Each structure stands twice: as structure tokens, then as C-alpha cells.
Amino acid sequence: MNRTERxxxxxxxxxxxxxxxxxxxxxxxxxxxxxxxxxxxxxxxxRLVSRTRGGATHGSVAYDLPGRYNRDDHSLQKQQIxxxxxxxxxxxxxxxxxxxxxxxxxxxxxxxxxxxxxASNGPTLTVxxxxxxxxxxxxxxxxxxxxxxxxxxNPRSYELVGPYxxxxxxxxxxxxxxxxxxxxxxxxGPTINDESEAAAxxxxxLRATEAYxxxxxxxxxxxxxxxxxxxxxxxxxxxxxVTSEQLSAFKENGIHVIIAPDLTDTDI
Length: 268
Description:
Strand order of the largest sheet: 6-5-4-9-12-14-15
Helix content: 25-40%
Radius of gyration: 18 Å
Number of helices: 9
Structural class: alpha/beta
Oligomer: single chain
Shape: globular
Strand content: 15-25%
Number of strands: 15
Largest sheet: 7 strands, parallel
């Protein structure tokens, strides 16, 4: 497990229990106590945790997310997808992150990437998002430039939507956009439960040179009520549980599929 993976794992443990101890972390991460302390110190420097005697607790920016973020049967797959997406993003890129559990996982991976935490004269990453939880998660990274769209808050998803959101997004140029969805069909494309969120996602995707749908395999073949009108998607990142029949259907419709490498529970 490299340093970035360890930092992400520590944040995952804090999300579950609210606190961690060096004596427990060291054997779990497979490192020495001194290394575990340095990892905690690095997270504390970035204000992602608060150091305590012998361990750490949640940082001061901790907040409660809507229920869909708290009970997730596919968290491992989303971590795999998030890490595969992170590998596409070079230092200095301008990216768009729509709301959702998988894009939130991507934000967490980016917040602990060693190259993006290096001191720099300019932003190591510029993030445009309509999700206030993602903005808050990344705001503690001084190396990042964060741009939040205006709009009306959807309390079920923490996403900003509506005409004010559209006005802001129509004036940005992105290298990459990463879109979270509720369902994805090889013919119909990505679908969302909320029409306003679908419209915001579509516009953010259209403003990017490359746009990727992030969807764990449980969402493949599922459909929700709102399509992403105007966005002709052709790239998706999913996990290895996607079936050969589903992959064939994507290929027949000209969609490039990236399958995220498998990780075990001990890798995150």
C-alpha cells in the first residue's frame, strides 16, 4: 500500500468510527508506528483530521451527508472506480465533478494524492462542482482552486441546480468532467432520478474536452426517469463485475469502457 492509499484508508476508517489510534493503524496498514504517525500528521496539516494523543479524530470540516452517502453496498467498487478516474487526471488539470457517491469518492482520492499536495505557485488542481459536500471536502486543500456553481440546493443530494447553475456552467471550460448517475443503459445512456440534476450534469459534461460517466456495475442496465439531454456519452468507468454481455452492448454502441482494477478490503 503506497502513501496515497494509506491516507485514503485512514480517512475511510475515520468515516466509519470517528477516531483512529496509531497502535491500531500501524498493523492494519502494514507500516511502522512512526509511519502511521507521519501519515496522521500529513492529514492534520491538510486539516483533514484533528490529531489527538496517540491518534486522530475527524477534522473540523466534518459534516453529515444525506442518507444515500451513509449506507452503500458498493463502496469498494466506487473506490476502485475513483482511483481509476484519478489516474486520468494530470497535475494542473481543470475538472468538473457532479454530485453523487462515486464522484465524492473521487474527490477523496484526489484530496490525498501526493503529487497534488506538493507546494506550487499555482493550483495543482482546479475543481468546478455543483455539489457542496464535494466543495467542502476539497476546500481544505490550499493547493486546489475550487469553483462552486450557484443555484438552488437539493437537500436530498447536496447538489445545486436550476438556472443560476446553468449560467455559471455555461462560462467554464473543463479538461475533464466526471458524472455520477443512478443508471446507465448502452442505448439510452446515463439517467438520473432528478430532472434538474440531469440538466446540470449534462451541461457540465458538455463543457469538458472529455467526459466520463462513473458507474459501478450494479447501475449498468438500470434506468431512471431523467436522461442527460444533449450529451452524447461515449466513455464510462465501471468495475470488474460488469458482464461480458454488457461490455458487448457498450462496444456495439461505440462506448469506450474502462474497467477499474480490483482492490481488496485491505487495500483501502
